[in-house]
Amino acid sequence: MMIPRDIINRRKKIYLTLVAVGFSAMAILAFIEKYMPHALFNALLYSSLSLLIVGNILMYIGIRCPKCDVIIGYAIVFSAEKVVQCPRCRINFDESIL
Ligand SMILES: [Zn+2]
Fold first, then answer.
1. Which residues make beta-bridge pairs with 92?
2. CA 44 to CA 68: how far, in whole Å?
């Protein structure tokens, strides 16, 4: 059985991982900066920063309703209450779509 919530949560987990990896990489870089060449440090810094930013952006625009494709990331991430249905097509995220 597949429920929309599973699809949404899987996406969210992927994007959260991107953000977490980017953030961790930057934290580590801060500690090892003095032990590495400046050019390498810059390259790694910009890579992890990009990862952090891309993960954040995807969290907003990359989570969509499995049925009507409307962007729901913003609501999912910031709603204090659990988002139970799509704001556009009103499908219930906890009911099977198959
Ligand atoms: Zn929808």
1. 85
2. 38
The first and second tokens of residue 36, run together, are: 């590495």
* CA 36 to ligand 1 center in whole angstroms: 49
Vertex 83 angle, CA 80 and 85, to 5°: 160
Q: How many whole angstroms from 64 Cα to the centroid of ligand 1?
A: 8
pLDDT tens per residue across span 63-92: 999 999 999 998 888 888 889 999 999 999
DSSP state string for 3-20:
-HHHHHHHHHHHHHHHHH
Query: What per-residue confidence (pLDDT) applies to 75?
Result: 85
Instruction: Report CA(24)–ligand 1 centroid distance (Å).
Output: 34
Burial label for 72, CB within 10 Å (0-12, 13-18, 19+), is: buried
Quick one: tokens of 84?
């139970």
The model's pTM is 0.84
